[in-house]
Specification:
The complex is a heterodimer of chains A (59) and B (253). Chain A has one helix at residues 9-57. Chain A is mostly helical. The N and C termini of chain A lie far apart (86 Å). Chain B has helices spanning 3-12, 15-35, 50-77, 80-112, 121-134, 136-142, 146-173, 192-234. The chains are: A mainly alpha (59), B mainly alpha (253).
Chain lengths: 59, 253
């Protein structure tokens, strides 16, 4: 191997980049799902709080 | 603890350790590929694509077979959780399969000067398997009744899963060996340093598959758990009606 980068370096870099981009896209989708779950848990907490208040105030 | 809650705990357990092991193994494989494995005499530097392309292909095909095994268990037991496992297994394999086709295409361009070669059995057979599995989700989506959907999808997953090893054998028996064969050569296989790098990359890819599968399973079970919680807190009206979907529905707890 010479001091300069060998031929086809671009192809090798592209192949590894494809792999990392795929994993990254998956992670972004997972992060979006996690954010949605967080919102839903907040909503459910609010729903639980309201329903317990109704029970306390009820007849 | 209810069914989906228990399942979420099951899939989420040790997920952090698994993620760390995946990153460490893949990082190790990358280091070995570029700083330890020797340069291939025929292909030179571009042979490094082998350490990402081949493990990804093996794991993707293994994932399809795993999906078929889960589908068999679904048909034997009628348990919807196995259908979900098969669905997620095939889903993750399709993602890796897309990666295999793209990296294979890049390797083909670097090696043969063409992005795609139609008379190359390995390339075309993988494309056939990929396209076959690409119809799995539309098939599910086309069936509205969840039970029928799960049953038909399982039959599909088993038939397609059986096709994977047959396809592999057919390619091996084919005479036109124009695909770069660096794993098994006439001299008796890979040199030890290349073999070690390959096995570490394969382990890393298998761990990645397992991690993504478990993340997806935990996510699907959490969604089911939240839905069930919403139903209990707000009644049926609080839960939006489930429209037609390709994803399996877990039984309400």
């Amino acid at each position: 191997m010479t001091d300069t980068l060998p031929d086809n370096t671009g192809y090798v870099a592209a192949a590894y980049l494809v792999f990392f981009v795929l994993v990254l896209v998956y992670l972004v989708i997972m992060a979006a799902k996690l954010a949605r779950f967080e919102r839903e848990v907040t909503e459910l907490n609010e729903l639980a709080r309201r329903s317990s208040e109704t029970r306390v105030d009820g007849p | 603890m209810t069914g989906p809650a228990r399942l979420t705990m099951l899939y989420a357990t040790r997920l952090r350790a698994l993620s760390i092991a995946t990153v460490a193994t893949l990082g190790g494989a990358l280091t070995l590929a570029f700083f330890y494995a020797p340069m291939d005499a025929d292909q030179g530097f571009m042979q490094k694509i082998f350490y990402v392309h081949v493990p990804m292909a093996i794991v993707a095909l293994g994932g399809f077979v795993f999906g078929a095994i889960m589908a068999i268990r679904h048909l034997r037991t009628g348990d919807a959780r196995y259908d979900l496992r098969a669905y997620v297994a095939i889903h993750v394999s399709l993602v890796l399969g897309a990666g295999v086709l793209i990296t294979g295409s890049i390797w083909a361009k670097a090696s043969w000067g063409h992005w795609w070669v139609w008379d190359e059995p390995t390339l075309v057979s993988f494309l056939i398997v990929f396209l076959l599995y690409a119809t799995y989700q539309p098939l599910r989506f086309s069936i509205e009744d969840p039970e029928r959907q799960a049953r038909y999808a399982s039959v599909f997953a088993i038939v397609a899963g059986a096709f994977v090893p047959l396809n592999f054998l057919a390619v091996r028996l084919a005479e036109a060996y124009t695909h770069p064969r660096v794993f098994a050569t006439a001299d008796g296989g890979l040199p030890p340093r290349m073999a070690l790098t390959f096995y570490v990359a394969l382990a890393g890819m298998a761990l990645l598959y397992l991690t993504l599968w478990r993340y997806e399973m935990a996510s699907k079970n959490t969604a089911a758990q939240l839905r069930s919680l919403r139903r209990r807190l707000g009644g049926e009206d609080a839960v939006a009606a489930r429209g037609r979907s390709a994803a399996p529905s877990l039984p309400a707890s």
